[in-house]
Predict the structure.
Amino acid sequence: MERPIAASVVKDVLAKMDISDISQATIRQCQAVANKLEEINNMRFIHLEIGVPGILACPVGLEAQKKALDSNIAHEYPPMGGIPLLKQNASKFLKAFADVDIEPECIVPTVGSMQSSMNLILECSQLNPEKDTILYINPGFSPNMLQAKIQGIKREAFDIYEFRAEKLRGKLEEYMSKGNIAAVLYSNPNNPTWMCLTEDELKTIGELATIYDVVVLEDLAYFCMDFRQDFSKPYEPPFQPSVARYTDNYVIMMSSSKIFSYAGERIGVACFSPKLYYREYPALREKYGLGRMGDNFVLTYLYAASTGVSHSAQYAYAALLGGAADGKIDFISEMAKYGQRAFRSKEIFERHGFHIVYDKDLDRKVGDGFFYTIGYKNMSCSELMFDLTRCGITAISLNSTGSAQNGIRACVSRLSSDKHFEEMDKRLGMFEQIQKEKQA
Amino acid sequence: MERPIAASVVKDVLAKMDISDISQATIRQCQAVANKLEEINNMRFIHLEIGVPGILACPVGLEAQKKALDSNIAHEYPPMGGIPLLKQNASKFLKAFADVDIEPECIVPTVGSMQSSMNLILECSQLNPEKDTILYINPGFSPNMLQAKIQGIKREAFDIYEFRAEKLRGKLEEYMSKGNIAAVLYSNPNNPTWMCLTEDELKTIGELATIYDVVVLEDLAYFCMDFRQDFSKPYEPPFQPSVARYTDNYVIMMSSSKIFSYAGERIGVACFSPKLYYREYPALREKYGLGRMGDNFVLTYLYAASTGVSHSAQYAYAALLGGAADGKIDFISEMAKYGQRAFRSKEIFERHGFHIVYDKDLDRKVGDGFFYTIGYKNMSCSELMFDLTRCGITAISLNSTGSAQNGIRACVSRLSSDKHFEEMDKRLGMFEQIQKEKQA
């Protein structure tokens, strides 16, 4: 790519795709715009928009899955609550890397964490007739917000940018004290900003969840991927931070997609606090004839959603979790490649006048991981997205993640070769040139 | 088993499981009751309750799936609309065995047909603000009714027993003419009765669906399993009957679970009438920014539900559908084993004074397939279920399927050896003995 794509060409593609504002486009739309422009201009974009694992699946999983297929499990419906080995190994894994005690019974496989959040949002909204609203700590993964919308469930949300540390308590209480919040949802490390909540912040969330009887839906898709600490030794501190240490009202959602690069097989686990799993809810009993939250998650919601999760993939995930807990799979150093890609690409952005938008966890610099957030001076999301697109770089806008800040989310997973970084440097040079021309 | 289980022992187990009326128990509860009684009495039940494939998975599928796992697809999110090969082969399969023309684009994999029906019910209820109700032609698969209940969607239903042939039109119009019916759902061959709708009945459903703008959700889980006809030759009549010949307002739900014994891997396809797939709905556009039914099914509903279907299982299902369409896999003669089991076990029931409840497709005897329905004189569902349980036979009650008739649904899938039939004969003898003692 030698010069920027003409603005008129980009505008034309957006119009044809029925996208009036590029900063409102979904990930899939951003991807489609880039693909169309690649075709028209016969070039390749730098793809920072989508969080596809850029590392091959862990072989231990593949071998276990093939072995399972050879042992006559494909014709049998998987047990609705999951195969025992997966439940046991997920329990061991959580103990080894998060120091959290959850008995195997309370851990349930789902078709990716998406199926966990979809059904937990729904179930939480039906636990108690007075609590009908899901609270999102934003910025966040926008499909989690879409899940409530699709299901007709009320939503509240705030941008955590201005409410970190001791300000978090007041902000959460503002919502929770109304009595209508059924659950609070966030990801940690955070998608899109890679901010990590501190132990104090998690404690605040946990304490308030107990006081106001709110379920915490904690998305740990990027489990142990805050590379500022060495989480690599099982059963030894430091441990993955979790709200589980501060309340009994939690469900941890853990995905195989990123930490084991197993996204294609669509498997995750919902890990219930045992108190919550066995808790009886009269509204559930009245509606479904079953009272416990865990029984209903398995036999009502997941049963109706897909009647279980790929039988063979359950064996794969069981082997991966078990291997990691036993110290035989070093998933963390494998994932650390993402951190290196983030470090290197952030430096290039910063050299061309960009800045990290969500830059700090209180007094610490935000870590280098799967995602980060980038702004350019006080440029709006729309303008920034548009000019980057002209330079052959695609990403998603912070607007679309529930953030009130100007900027984009960059995902480093597809920056897999030196060429990508060199090309990125060149294209960000073009971006600067466009800005200079605008001022002239 | 030498004598019936004491009534008090069965009552005790039901009480402990919080089941006040055995005829209201779900499949999973019936199974749990049988398992508990097996443990207490140290014997094995005849399991007629659950439709688990009793035949091993087709090897062509297993080989394709393992090959896919070896070719680096496990780390990649599957395409949301499905891999091209699966879409193409499902399109060929439908042409070969149902003589229905659906282009590959309009065929979308789902995590079993359960995920199809769950999301189609939801989407249909959001197509048009005036149409908010799903109509079920019962008896049916009770989880399909649960799916609407969970999602807070209104339901109507009627028992087709009294409304076959020319009576069907009046009954359907009674509901559809009110203007609030978004979709009508049925299975064909029917679960639980194995009745098959005639071409005339399908024509009636299709015509009314067009007139009243209702979407037909046609569950073909038991595709080509009406063994009274020879469907085995691809691209030659006779063809699997389908409403697709009589309206453009249909979605066919097709599962791999039964016809290819692939239940464990959780994969099916939703096959949209192209007119419906590409149809623009203003209510969808307003809500989701996308207007077409098909785009929303893929990018809104399925994306939020699970972000796609097991990548490797898609290759398995593609190979199975393609192999069948090419005449290389004779799935029908494999499935015909179920028909033989039905024939043999029905004879035993009838010899002991039972009768088939849903016995005819108009003037033809109902076929021998995966399920059938059984009654005993005018005994109620509860009493029949209770006495069969005492004799070590478990099934599900017709009550629980939306039927107004007295009887049970028997599934033959687990009657896999001569011993099962001999034991069944003996136990039904005990059942008769119990009835004689009651009269004495």
Chain B has two domains: 7-44+331-439, 59-325.
